[in-house]
Design a protein that fits this description.
single chain, UDP-N-acetylmuramoyl-L-alanine:D-glutamate ligase, 11-stranded mixed beta sheet, 7-stranded mixed beta sheet, 39 strands
């Protein structure tokens, strides 16, 4: 058994509304075997992984998988469930899995859910799969696999890679408020919202946090000085840079003292309650020497107060790491018992941090007269640290309701003095519920923290949990403030790019900042910021992450959906132009119905109450309106059709719906019994008075989408009239002139598109034409043949060339196939092979009679336009455009 590939799909995808990976497995000699063929395999597997007995496996009850395992199931299915169980064992809670047989014998696709915010580049999922293959193979070979060490390693890797408690809580709070969340780094950087409503958070640092404030808070001496200037009680302190200076400062401050690095975090190298100069000097050296802050020790309890946007939102009393004796166990055993608490993990990945036995802990035990082998009395508290930090194993108690108003004022003033919108104030006080007595030094602010940890407030050991993450999100998005921008998703087989461009053109003219992603690239406003095929989720990220974008228009192609999932969580308007034969034979697509299933995801992942624009002239597309998932979204259906007599449109209008159609030469909005003429077809740029029916259909779809977004009728008329096809929609098609020869440049690359382009050329010039064609090499032979047949139906002179990107074909292979297919339909056809684009066009010019048009099909537009520009071609001027 081996893993041939692993692909990660974003959410939503064809399998789940959460991320998944798809692993292509080659089962080798196990391809024809089932689990029941190996006597005792099921029992051995369950002995190793007893949790498999809880797997439902589509039966809605525990034990479903065990039943299938005993009856006999293929080993791809076994690997799926073993991987899921291994995930559970390392604390990676995922439940969905599916195993699908591929077109290749012995090959299976195993689809497995991933945690929503798991870092996309993380290798844990692949390592779990490899471990599942290994242990399954070992058990089939009669060996007992040892997986404990590897599971422990993977658990540690996963703990380090997952979002920490604070970041996870922020992500959860945002989603509860319907705010999109995207993890941007291996760390905890999150993007909230879309476009102009985008906000950033990095743990508890927000996009509104002052960089100066963060730098101030990281400099403990400067923080203390600023707080003192603001009249806030702080410990007396001095910066020391040598052991001799420590001794001198100790006598000036009086003992006990605290030693801490000027720049440190999470209580690292902080030494408290140092009672003698020698202790202080030793701590100075342990703190790294150099420059450290030495301050007077403030007696009392440790408190952390969280201030957000100038107000206190939570407070906790902190206790240092400790164990409590039971009269039987030694300290080492008590530490192990505490660390068995599932709430404890490494670093900040869990509500509590594991207790660590290091030199600091051992030294502190010695001060208390203990070592790791000591057995404390029943109820005796043994401290492992002096400083009360959760990051060193401390615990917390919520005291939010006890904070005295004096303390509250000090905390909010401290946040203002440092300049932080979100900060943690560390205090030492006798009692946080008591007033501070001026001049008594009974309490002080000992530290101000930028990016404060939220664990102590979210999951205190005692007292009420506080939704501090929700408060921070509400600080970023005030009540009623939007987090989303309107998203228009456009999919289909033909017309996607043109329709997306039309929608973006109109919306841009209304004054909105439009971000658009199509197969031609990504643009923001009038600027092309990325050139290339941009119809997948990465391009959507580019648009949705741009703070200048107020509305997004996203062409959403089949390839991106299949290989990566959608690039957004839901669209406000979804447009499906048509679904016809293309990409057959790719990614397991065998029929148009398979294509419908893929593209239907765009319709099904629409926001509740969103608008779905469907082509009523295409049965596969129109049928999406009745899908249960679409109906459950309460989507507003807007049909478009070239004929007002379309039965789907007529029925929809009788039910009070809205449709867009052509009636007596006018583009009409029909709403129930109301009819409004919007635009005459002769005024549609690039439609040639309606002869280019595909362009008319694209405009109908675009108008429906724009109306769904609230664009007025008068604005639609005015803005559509400003469209310049050659500039705003190049190559879909572009018509140029070289001398008296018309040249039609288009991207048609499937039978339906080629057929309509051939008809347009005939209707415009009523004379024979020459076709210069190339077809994508990644299409199956049958589709290539069908496309060539469509060419032969119209053209009697054809020049065939191959694009530089052969898409997996051998050089010359496509040319031979296309020419053979052309001759099948039309034995007398004149077919000429060419070595490249320039040779093809030069040959076509030789074949062309004076005034005959040329249809030039391309894979990449820029080389075509560059060639024609070099030859002196100019835009075709025709009063029918």
């Amino acid at each position: 058994m081996r893993i041939d590939s692993i692909t990660r799909l974003r959410a939503p995808n064809l399998y789940l509304s959460r991320p998944v990976i798809i692993a292509r497995l080659d089962l080798g000699e196990l391809a024809g075997r089932e689990s029941a063929d190996d006597v005792g395999f099921a029992a051995r597997l369950l002995d190793l992984l007893p949790g498999l007995a809880e797997h439902h496996c589509g039966t809605a009850r525990p034990g479903g998988f065990v039943g299938k395992l005993n009856q006999g199931t293929y080993f791809g299915h076994v690997i799926e469930h073993v991987t899921l169980e291994l995930s559970h064992l390392i604390g990676r809670e995922v439940n969905f899995g599916r195993t699908l047989q591929t077109d290749v014998p012995g090959s299976f696709d195993v689809v497995l859910e991933c945690p929503r915010d798991e870092w996309a580049e993380d290798s844990v999922a692949g390592d779990l799969l490899r471990l599942a293959l290994h242990l399954t193979g070992e058990m089939l070979a009669g060996r007992a696999p040892q997986i404990t060490t590897e599971l422990s390693r993977l658990a540690s890797v996963y703990e380090r890679s997952r979002l920490g408690v604070s970041a996870e809580a922020l992500a959860r709070a945002a989603r509860q408020r319907d705010i999109p969340v995207r993890r941007l780094s291996e760390g905890t950087l999150l993007q909230l919202g879309y476009g102009c409503h985008r906000r950033m958070v990095w743990s508890a640092i927000t996009g509104q946090t002052s960089a100066i404030g963060v730098d101030i808070a990281s400099d403990k001496e400067l923080t203390t000085r600023l707080l003192a200037t603001a009249g806030i009680p702080v410990p007396e302190s001095v910066v020391v840079r040598s052991a001799a200076a420590v001794g001198t400062a100790f006598h000036e401050l009086g003992g006990p003292v605290v030693i801490k690095p000027l720049f440190s975090r999470q209580g690292m190298n902080v030494f408290t309650e140092l009672a003698t100069p020698d202790e202080a000097i030793a701590a100075f050296r342990l703190a790294g020497g150099g420059s450290v802050l030495m301050e007077s020790y403030v007696p009392g309890r440790d408190y952390r107060v969280l201030v957000v946007d100038g107000r206190i939102v939570a407070a906790a009393e902190l206790n240092a790491a400790h164990v409590t004796g039971d009269g039987v166990s030694d300290i080492a055993a008590l530490i192990e018992q505490v660390n068995e608490d599932p709430r404890r993990g490494e670093g900040h990945s869990r509500p509590l941090t594991r207790l660590v036995v290091d030199d600091t802990a051992v030294a502190h035990l010695v001060r208390q007269g203990h070592d790791l082998e000591s057995v404390p009395a029943l109820g005796e508290v043994v401290w492992l640290r002096r400083n009360a930090n959760l990051s060193t194993g401390g615990t917390s108690r919520d005291v939010t309701e006890l904070v005295h108003s004096d303390v509250a004022r000090i905390c909010t003033r401290a946040a203002v003095a440092v300049g932080l919108d979100v900060c943690g104030i560390d205090l030492r006080l006798p009692d946080i519920s008591a007033p501070l007595v001026p001049g008594t030094h009974a309490g002080a602010v000992i530290e101000v923290n930028a990016s404060p940890g939220l664990r102590m407030h979210l999951s205190p050991n005692e007292g009420a949990a506080r939704d501090v993450a929700g408060v921070i999100i509400d600080h970023l998005y005030r009540e009623g403030a939007p987090a989303r921008i309107p998203i228009v998703a456009v999919t289909g087989t033909n017309g996607k790019t043109t329709t997306a461009r039309l929608i973006a053109h109109v919306l841009h003219r209304t004054g909105l900042g439009v971000g658009m992603a199509t197969t031609a690239g990504v643009s923001v406003g009038d600027r092309l910021i990325y050139e290339g095929d941009a119809s997948g989720p990465r391009s959507a990220d580019m648009v949705l992450g741009d703070p200048g974008v107020e509305v997004a228009v996203l062409e959403t192609a089949r390839g991106g959906i299949v290989r990566r999932g959608l690039g957004y969580d839901s669209a406000d308007v979804a447009v499906i132009t048509n679904i016809t034969r293309d990409h057959i034979g790719m990614n397991g697509i065998h029929t148009v119905d398979d294509l419908i299933e893929i593209k239907s995801l765009v319709a099904e992942e629409i926001r509740d109450g969103g608008h779905l624009v469907l082509n009523a002239d295409d049965p596969g597309t129109a049928g999406l309106a009745t899908r249960p998932t679409v109906r459950a979204r309460d989507a507003v259906i807007r049909f478009f059709s070239l004929s007002p007599a379309n039965p789907v449109v007529e029925r929809h209008l009788r039910q009070g719906g809205t449709a867009y159609t052509i009636d007596d030469g006018w583009l009409v909005e029909a709403d129930g019994t109301q009819r409004t003429a919007l635009l005459h077809v002769r005024d549609i740029p690039g439609a040639f008075s309606g002869l280019a029916s595909f362009m008319v259909a694209n405009v109908l779809a675009a108008v429906a989408a724009c109306r769904a977004l609230g664009v007025g009728k008068d604005d639609l008329r005015r803005f559509l009239a400003t469209l310049e096809p050659g500039r705003d929609n190049p190559g879909r098609p572009s018509i140029l002139r070289l001398g008296d020869m018309p040249i039609v440049v288009d991207y048609a690359h499937n039978p339906a598109a080629i057929s309509v382009m051939g008809q347009l050329v005939q209707q415009l010039w009523h004379r024979a034409a020459v076709a210069v064609i190339t077809l994508p090499g990644d299409r199956c032979d049958d589709l290539v043949v069908e496309s060539a047949h469509a060419v032969a139906q119209v053209f009697d002179r054809v020049v065939v060339y191959e694009d530089e990107d052969l898409r997996g074909r051998e050089r010359g292979e496509m040319t031979k196939l296309i020419i053979a297919s052309l001759c099948e339909v039309r034995p007398d056809i004149w077919c000429v092979p060419a070595v490249d684009l320039e040779d093809a066009f030069t040959t076509a010019c030789v074949l062309d009679a004076p005034g005959d048009p040329i249809l030039l099909l391309y894979e990449k537009l820029p080389p075509v336009l560059a060639l024609l520009d070099r030859l002196g071609a100019t835009p075709w001027v025709d009063d029918r455009q």
